Automatic annotation (TrEMBL), chain A:
InterPro entries: ABC2_TM (IPR013525), ABC2_TM_bact-type (IPR047817), ABC_2_transport (IPR000412), Nod_factor_ABC_transporter (IPR051784). GO terms for molecular function: ABC-type transporter activity. GO terms for cellular component: ATP-binding cassette (ABC) transporter complex. Residues 27-256 form the ABC transmembrane type-2 domain. It is found in: Cell membrane; Membrane. It is a multi-pass membrane protein. This is Transport permease protein. Belongs to the ABC-2 integral membrane protein family. PROSITE patterns: ABC_TM2 (PS51012). The chain crosses the membrane at residues 25-48, 60-86, 107-132, 144-167, 179-198, 231-249. The keyword Membrane applies.
Automatic annotation (TrEMBL), chain B:
Its main location: membrane. It comes from the Bacteria. GO terms for cellular component: plasma membrane. This is Daunorubicin resistance ABC transporter, ATP-binding protein. The keyword Transport applies. GO terms for molecular function: ATP binding; ATP hydrolysis activity.
Length: 258, 324
């Protein structure tokens, strides 16, 4: 078998294993969706009037949903960090290491599974958004595809970072803690309030952190708002985080176990 | 000439200042059971981890060949030849026993049908068919260990490493595991096992190496090892005090127990030594009521070689230098 065929075959075996876990224990995935869904409902129905500044609740739903979708990805990949850390503490990964399989397949299977899970999560949370009134009136098919592609790229980037965090954590609890920024960063992005309503000194931080450009791009694609340079900053972040997360994960995984 | 399944020279490994393995030579002929015996922390697991490609050998180690493949040059070929069951359970607790087996079949690139057949066969062989549809996390310790070994056997490996395969098992499961290991060897598989139980090494192994503080303190068959340690004797019991006394006079080197009319004659338990004792008894015309030969068991050897305390009085243990 060629190295590439081996990589594909073993990675898909590992993917099946991870999907089996997800299917067998759906509560693990669904629990992770509670945070974004809760925040969505909280900000629409409790703080909605205050947040929208008089523009009306439905306008705020439209503003909020793209940010919540990005936050959903951040939340889902926390589960990736946790299960990666759990896996490393089980003997099963040591077993994989002593088998004549493609070495990276443990990570590839995990990443692909996690991206699929993220997409599914986004669809579920998106459905909640639609249920409470989110509508995208003007988006073309191309814009929908671009939005989908963006979500996948963000999921891929954040997953690799999360895998690195999971590998670097001694146990599941530590992994869950170290992955916390993935759910905190969206809170200080343009997900909930526009940048110009934030203190001046903070605006650059909020503007250039990974989530804001992605959220602004998604908003533009779905709602027709101004995207500006956000799209390429978002793509740059995705590429950088993917490369960084991949290199970090590989280095940790290939390091000799104790 | 028998071919070697495992050949390693001068195996070394240290973590920082701590030397775990300090020049260990290992050679295991194909189709035999080799036991690496040692107390906790002796370096047994480290040796298995190196030989099974999990960690690299330390600098200064000699060449390692497993199944004819050079471990440093072609670790994937080594991995394809071996099966490993580590000390800690290597099953996926979240999925069922059968799914664990099918996972292994997939990773060995068996076809779907072949994978199902192998999984079903092994599950039946290890008495796991009934539990096959339950999550592995619900298995008892013995069942998990059996599943672990069943998974190791999926690729039909010719060389199997078992790191403390019976640690933590109840006596019944332990005997079951011994049976499994014997069956493996019958099938021509080479087994490299580590254990801290002397009885286990004695039961299973063709050759035993005693590892202590990162060096092989002694190596040989169980019998050879037992002979390394003095302490064997012939016990002669008499019913008649007169006969006892004349025997004691004839066998002057013996230790006397006048109350029970018993003599302990130091002896290595060999046929020649035994005959000499009997000849001397015949010469004085005395017949013992019973005669038992006590050879030192592996416990004596183990404690003597590893310098553990609380041993029955033994002559000084041979130093590692003289043995090696």
């Amino acid at each position: 078998m060629s190295p590439f065929a081996l990589a594909v075959r073993d990675s898909s075996t590992m993917l099946r294993r991870n999907l089996l876990h997800a299917r067998r224990y759906p509560s693990l995935t669904l629990n992770l969706l509670l945070t974004p869904v809760m925040l969505l409902l909280l900000f629409v129905y409790i703080f909605g009037d205050a947040m929208s500044g008089g523009a009306g609740r439905s306008a705020y739903v439209a503003y909020l949903v793209p940010g919540i979708l990005m936050m959903t990805i951040g939340s889902t990949v926390i589960g990736t960090a946790v299960s990666m850390a759990t896996d490393m503490n089980e003997g099963i990964v040591a077993r994989f290491r002593t088998m004549a399989i493609h070495r990276g397949s443990v990570l590839f299977g995990r990443v692909i599974g996690s991206v699929l899970q993220s997409v599914l999560s986004v669809v579920l949370v998106g459905a909640v958004g639609v249920a409470i009134g989110f509508r995208s009136h003007h988006a073309t098919v191309l814009e929908w595809l671009a939005a989908f592609g963006l979500l996948v790229l963000v999921a891929l980037a954040l997953t690799w970072i999360a895998v690195g965090m999971g590998l670097g954590s001694p146990n599941a609890e530590a992994a869950s803690n170290s992955a916390l920024p993935l759910i905190v960063l969206p809170l200080i992005s343009s997900a909930f309030v526009p940048l110009h309503s934030m203190p001046g000194w903070f605006q650059p931080i909020a503007q250039y952190q990974p989530f804001t450009p992605a959220i602004e791009t998604l908003r533009g694609l779905l709602l027709g708002t101004h995207i500006g340079n956000n799209w390429w900053i978002a793509l740059l972040w995705c590429a950088a985080l993917t490369v960084l997360g991949y290199a970090w994960s590989r280095a940790q995984f290939d390091r000799e176990p104790k | 000439m028998t071919r070697l399944a495992i050949a390693a020279q001068g195996l070394r490994k240290s973590y920082g200042d701590k030397t775990v393995l300090d020049g260990v030579d290992l050679s295991v002929p194909e189709g035999t059971v080799f036991a690496l015996l040692g107390p906790n922390g002796a370096g047994k697991t480290t040796a298995v981890k190196i030989l099974s490609t999990l960690i690299s050998a330390g600098p200064g180690s000699g060449p390692i060949r497993i199944g004819g493949h050079d471990l440093a040059a072609d670790p994937q070929a080594v991995r394809a030849a071996i099966g490993v069951t580590g000390q800690f359970s290597a099953v996926d607790g979240l999925i069922t026993g059968e799914e664990n087996m099918l996972l292994m079949a997939d990773l060995h690139h068996l076809s779907k049908a072949e994978g199902r057949r192998v999984a079903a066969d092994l599950l039946a062989r290890f008495d796991l068919t009934e539990a096959a549809q339950k999550p592995a996390s619900t298995y008892s310790g013995g069942m998990k260990r059996r599943l672990d070994i069943a998974m190791t056997l999926v690729g039909d490996p010719r060389i199997i490493f078992l790191d403390e395969p019976t640690t933590g098992l109840d006596p019944r499961s332990r005997h079951g595991m011994w049976q499994i290991i014997r069956e493996l060897v019958t099938g021509g598989v080479t087994v490299f096992l580590t254990t801290q139980y002397l009885e286990e090494a004695d039961e299973l192994a063709d050759r035993i190496a005693v590892l202590n503080n990162g060096v092989i303190a002694a190596e040989g068959t169980a019998e050879e090892l037992k002979r390394l340690v003095p302490g064997g004797h012939v016990r002669l019991r008499f019913t008649d005090p007169a006969g006892y006394r004349s025997a004691a006079d004839a066998l002057t080197e013996s230790a006397r127990d006048d109350d029970s009319l018993t003599l302990l004659v130091p002896s290595d338990g060999s046929q020649r030594a035994l005959r000499a004792v009997l000849d001397r008894l015949d010469a004085v015309g005395v017949e013992a009521e019973s005669l038992t030969v006590h050879t030192p068991d592996l416990d004596d050897v183990f404690f003597a070689l590893t310098g553990a305390p609380a041993v029955p009085a033994q002559p000084a243990a041979p130093s590692e230098e003289t043995v090696r």
